[in-house]
Amino acid sequence: MSSSLNRFLRLGRDAAQDVRGRILHVVTGNEASDADSIVSAIVYAYVLDHEQQQQQQQQQQQQQLFVPVMSIPRADFALRFETAALFAQLGIDVGALLFADELDLGAVHRRGELRLTLTDHNLLQRDRAHLAEAVAAIVDHHEDEGAYEWVTGGSRQIAFEAAAAASGGLGRATVASACTLVTERALSSLLLLQPPPPPPQALLAAGEGEGADGVGAGAGAVDGECCVAEALLSVVLLDSVNLDPAAHKVTPRDVAAVEALAPLCGRTIDSGAAAQAAAAAVAVAAGDGAVKGSTTAALFEQLQAEKFSRARWLALSAADCLKMDYKQYEAGAVGAGLASALVTVREFLALGGGDGGDCDAAGAMREFAAARGLRLLGVMTLVYGADGQPQREMLLFSDEAELLRAVTEHLLTHETLDASVLEVGALLPAGSESGAARVTTLRLGNAGASRKKVAPLLTKFCATLA
Questions:
Q1: Distance CA 270, CA 366 (A)
Q2: 320 burial level (CB within 10 Å; 0-12, 13-18, 19+)
Q3: Which residues are CB-contacts of 213 (< 8 A; sequence separation ≥ 6)?
Q4: How does pLDDT run across 169-179, given as a tens digit for each residue?
Q5: Of the candidates 274, 340, 266, the residue with the CA atom closest to the CA atom of residue 299
Q6: Which of 173, 199, 290, 432 is most buried, by the most CB atoms less than 10 A from its CB?
Q7: How far apart are CA 371 and CA 392, in angstroms?
Q8: How many Cα atoms are found within 13 Å in the side-chain-facing hemisphere of 101?
Q9: Domain spanning 3-245 has what CATH number?
Q10: Contact (Cβ atoms closer than 8 angstroms) between residue 459 and residue 452
Q11: Other residues' Cβ atoms within 10 Å of the Cβ of residue 84
């Protein structure tokens, strides 16, 4: 495990609970809190702390305290299968992390002592909108929402090329992963080329040494450099589908990041569809969670298997499925949300509602939407077929028939999606609690139509509606 990274996390966690008279600089990912959001927030905070120590330009009492904060409640972390597996493998102490329900950022902001760096998003979620003035930097690869105009230059890294207004296209990210951007910063700061320095004295004052769980560096511990490199490498591989060009995600910057990170982890680069097929046959998890094999393909296949675990996904309730990977958007008068699920639409609709109720999956969508003030809720699904090709589907829910009809028609006629109606038959009987009229199911023929690309298209259209 990484003694230096865990020490940074523990000391920051403890010091953040009572920060007065100094700046608390929180690095936080988006509300979906997938592996990219969580790892980018942790490592970017670690990088910023490293750079501050290297500069030593401020007096100790004026230094900022850099702390990553996860954008979900602690209880929801267990639903992030691949991230939990990665942290267990690397020995990253989840107990040392701070979650959204454990730190009152509003109180720190009211004292004028909060700064925010946003990773993997560039617009605060609704329940954090009151913290807008604290946003100081952005590290992201989604379409620029145009918020926080004071964040400019090098502080505003948004690796996304929007489609020309007249084209009606989807736009494209110029990196597959926010962790690629974090890797570039870590390399430029030399964090990944030398042992990390000790934590600042301000953190040491909060208590140094072994954490409450008694875990120290120990024999065989993964040092900070290797742990950070492996965490970043894992996410870049996941988000780029192991650098496979056929997935239409990888960019030259992702390739460069992997080429820099893999040697630091002692891994041989082995990418593309053929490598994935070979690794799937040999990358078997050992009893202690380590991977047999030292190639990037073996690492990718292990984490991909965790992420797409059929048994785990099909054991979830619909309510938990919606919480797994959810993002919310403001589109004029239409509050909209999109969840991602790694099951088919049919499988999602067959799940029980969950959260203690006896409703069906569509009923769970209604409750989820009502609790968040949404007029439109979508579920974008992704599975891989027997031929290894991605299959994307979409489920839309609204209690407003006209809104649902207009949005459905817009998606069906948008040629870049290649959408068609998906018949689900008896799974949505007209007389059910939720009613088939409130749900639309679509098949997306464009395998590259991810949420990152569909969300701007959807929200821009909804913003034109009354």
A1: 44
A2: middle
A3: 93, 95
A4: 778 999 999 99
A5: 266
A6: 173
A7: 27
A8: 6
A9: 3.90.1640.10
A10: no
A11: 16
Q: Scanning the structure block, which residue is given the tokens 């090329």?
A: 161
As a CATH number, domain 311-462 is 3.10.310.20
CB 83 within 8 A of CB 112: no
The tokens describing 108, both together, are 């720190």
Are 376 and 334 in contact by the 8 Å Cβ rule? The answer is yes
d(CA 301, CA 227): 19
Neighbouring residues of 306: CB distance < 8 A, sequence distance ≥ 6? 81, 82, 84, 85, 86
pLDDT in tens, 107-153: 999 999 999 999 999 999 989 999 999 999 999 999 999 999 999 99
Burial bucket for residue 7 (CB in 10 Å: 0-12, 13-18, 19+): buried
Those residues whose C-beta lies under 8 Å from the C-beta of residue 256, and which sit 6 or more positions away, are none
Domain ranges of the chain: 3-245, 311-462
Question: In the chain, how many H helices and how many E strands?
Answer: 16, 14
Structure tokens at 254: 């992702």
Place of tokens 């290797």: 226
Beta-carbon contacts of residue 300 (< 8 Å; ≥ 6 apart): 234, 237, 238, 241, 242, 276, 279
Q: Name the packing angle between helices 3-16 and 35-55 (round to 10°).
A: 90
User: Does pLDDT of 185 surpass 80?
Assistant: yes
The string of pLDDT tens digits covering residues 301-348 is: 999 999 999 999 999 999 999 999 999 998 888 899 999 999 999 999
Residue 91 region by backbone torsions, left for phi larger than 0, else alpha for psi between -120 and 50, else beta: left
Residue showing tokens 């299959």? 391
Token look-up 């492996």 returns 230
Location of structure tokens 């004029």: 332
Q: Find the farthest-apart pair of alpha carbons in the chain and give their distance in angstroms, rounded.
A: 69
Q: How many CB atoms lie within 10 A of CB 445?
A: 12
CA nearest neighbour of 33 among 64, 65, 68: 68
Q: Read off the DSSP letter of residue 206.
A: T
Question: DSSP letters of 110-163?
Answer: HTT-EEEEEES-SS--GGGGGGGGGEEEEEE-S------TT--GGGEEE-EEPP
**CA distances (Å), 90 to each of 99, 228, 337, 465, in order?**
20, 9, 33, 48
